[in-house]
Amino acid sequence: MRIEEHPVLQFDRGEKVTFFYNGQEVEAYSNETIAAALHAAGVRRLGHSPELHRPRGLFCAIGNCSSCFMTVNGEPNVRICVTRVEPGMRVEEQQGKGVVTP
Amino acid sequence: MIRNVEVLVVGGGPAGLCAAQAAASMGAKVTMLERDYVPGGQLVKQTHKFFGSEKQHAGERGFQIGRMLLDEIQADPNIEILPETTALGCYEDGVITALQGDKHLKFRPERTILATGAAEKFLAFPGNDLPGVYGAGAVQTLMNVAGVKPAQRVLMVGSGNIGLIVSYQLKQAGVEVAGVVEAAPRIGGYLVHAAKIRRAGIPILTGWTVKEAFGKEQVEGAVICQLDDKFQQIPGTEKTIACDAICLAVGLTPLTELCWQAGCEMKYIRELSGHVPVVSDDLETTKAGIYAAGDVTGIEEASSAMVEGKIAGYSAAASLGHSPEEAARLRQEAMEELRQLRSGPTGGKINAGIEKVKQDGGVVHVNLYRYSH
Q1: Which residue in B46, B151, B214, B369 could disulfide with B245, CB within 3.0 to 4.6 Å?
Q2: Any idea which fold A16-92 has?
Q3: Do B146 and A65 touch (CB under 8 A)?
Q4: B344/B105: higher pLDDT
Q5: What are the boundaries of each domain within chain A?
């Protein structure tokens, strides 16, 4: 959920854009990360661990921890916490360690 | 192709920004690598007013200081900022590599300033990998940068300054805080922050910890329990807390991979929260030409990181022959600022840590990250 009113901060969210999460259209803003847009849309489970298949979510949000890996426009293991949303982007839950397609 | 650069700053947080600005103001050409798409590090996520003196912009809120610094740096023709660029490695011949999108960049800097900051510590408990268990920094990033609520009701773990400040920030963002659990028998952070959140009606439970997180696909609640004076869980004291997020504010540890790779002498210093590079008063590591500033030299506050950045920036510029007298004078001033900052309430611990770094012995020789030939 988005913060509409804040006593100290004003958010420069940029323009409204849409992208695709597992094939579904999601509304987002041009100045935010994929992670922020998915959280705003209520998506917190971002994938599953490769071996035990336990649900995985965001942990550090600054590109350190690798917990938020997803497949973006066909490229696996993208840190969505430091990747900005782009219009029409395809963001998918990753299966296992991901497959790199040349 | 390897690019020759004069001063390479790795990291665009408070230390990196100030290092770049200091070196550039003496006439050095600076290139700064920043992993995120906007520099500023954790500074731009702070909504509270800073302490210290006027020189460290005391009384201003962290994000305001960050924006001011960023504006100045973006207008500086001597500074090139490379955002969305992650440093990957530091090689024996001094080459530093980085990834920018799908481009692999290589730099050969005359001087390098490592301002890589810190990583959040984790805590072992069942269910700690569920979505909804966040580091305190992640909560700040979501709500103070993106303006997105991380959850509806949060359990905070840790009552150091970060735990207290982030609890208050959650309240500001309209998120409920179920309470703060603190394993130690007393509150870790400043009284002024603790009083603020107590006034907001948020309970702080000292001598308590999180025993487990539960939930199917994400956090649906937490079990907390009391600890004895040996930090062992006391059976029968368990309480269930309804929450959809658990925020871990259990400390930070220096992010030193590049220091290890460069072959800097490293020491484990408990007071500085982990392994740190051995540095001179100029903040030069034991590898000539490689400096370190900010949390990578030991966990402190953003104010100290900014001043350390200045010291490293002036030192690096002076060593290249840029306005050496002026740089020496400004570096001296910055060292005095740092001395004053460290005379504050938490300074004792930091000073003790820095003394240990300076003492002989204790250097860790096993280089965990280095490829062995």
Answers
A1: B151
A2: Ubiquitin-like (UB roll) (3.10.20)
A3: no
A4: B105
A5: 16-92
